[in-house]
Amino acid sequence: MGAEAKVVVQRSVTPVLDVQYLQEIDSVLTATSPPSCDPIRASDSVSPDLSRPQPDIKSQESTSLQYSPSIRSGSFSDIGPRRYMEDEHIRIDDLPTQLGSLFSFPKPSAFYGLFDGHGGPEAAAYVRKNVIRFFFEDANFPQRCEVDDIFLEEVESSFRKSFLLADVALADDCNVSSSSGTTALTALILGRLLMVANAGDCRAVLCRKGEAIDMSQDHRPTHASERRRVEELGGFIDDGYLNGVLSVTRALGDWDMKLPRGSASPLIADPDYRQIVLTEDDEFLIIGCDGIWDVMSSQHAVSLVRRGLRRHDDPEQCARDLVMEALRLNTFDNLTVIVVCFTSLDHRDPSPTRQRRMRCCNLSAEALCSLKSLLDGGGGGH
């Protein structure tokens, strides 16, 4: 069983990469970044059976100005049927407390990351160890509290850059094998805004009034748009695997499969990025590795967690329940789940009032006399 991930806070701002690599990353971002802050579209949903109209950010702003989420989370990991544990994760429920001396954040602010390694645990462990440096210190995270359109564009650009920084850093670290890689999914909460960036097949699912809304897309070779991109760049899909080897089309690391820096590759580290304005209808977020989603739908997971929160209001227990459910359904992978609650539900199902069982007894005349004398205070004690 994997140990609980501890918060990693590194206050050193020593650059990970030299100027040449930063310039390469900036050029890639300029050439490939899509229009920022796109609202979620139902057509982007991972599971076709769960596609439904997705909420629009602007339409929600006027209805949720007074709402502020109350952040708390829990997580659970298990090695599953595998010989080695390659998952890593991090939970920071209060960013101002952890990084307040370095950055100014709106309140509440929180950060979560899940890194599902393959080809050995080195890549996932490396990214988790340096996650604060990659995502906040070296990626030019915006230094302002005011959440406006410019700030949101800067946050998106910063997060896209973070994934590429981590990817190139893995290529340069001699302790990480070139055949080791990791998927990565991060979730950032700034006030009422939820922002999710994903490269790989981890998944983030939002519960809105009991309904599952996918906040990320699984980057798998079988996905039509990913297959098209891979084939246009000279790659191929063989039996559901990229170039017959890898079950994802986006990942950090795996430099033995990537073309030289600066050129297009079928395997990329560029994340999908989605954001949404949280409202009172949003109850929690589930972040899970592919070992969860291989055996259950997003709606199944949401329903299980929702029932658990209404019983015991414990996100960590809900994360454990999801892992146990995946094991029951015969998953074949490592398992990690993070459950982030946006409100203190405390909707526990009231237990039925226990009726005290009354038993009728027949007392003898002698016993009645003894009881009467005791009540009258005239009984002779031994």
Automatic annotation (TrEMBL):
CDD domains in alphabetical order: PP2Cc
A Pfam family it matches: PP2C
Superkingdom assignment: Eukaryota
All residue ranges annotated as the PPM-type phosphatase domain in the record: 72-342
Stretches the record annotates as Disordered: 33-80
Coiled coil start-end: none
Keywords in alphabetical order: Hydrolase, Magnesium, Manganese, Metal-binding, Protein phosphatase
Polar residues biased stretches: 60-76
Molecular function GO labels: metal ion binding; protein serine/threonine phosphatase activity
Cofactor: Mg(2+); Mn(2+)
Catalytic activity: O-phospho-L-threonyl-[protein] + H2O = L-threonyl-[protein] + phosphate; O-phospho-L-seryl-[protein] + H2O = L-seryl-[protein] + phosphate
GO cellular component: a single term: nucleus
Alphabetized InterPro entries for the sequence: PP2C, PP2C_BS, PPM-type-like_dom_sf, PPM-type_phosphatase-like_dom
UniProt record similarity statement: Belongs to the PP2C family.
The name this protein goes by in its record: protein-serine/threonine phosphatase
Organism this protein belongs to: Escallonia herrerae
Organism taxonomic ancestry: Eukaryota, Viridiplantae, Streptophyta, Embryophyta, Tracheophyta
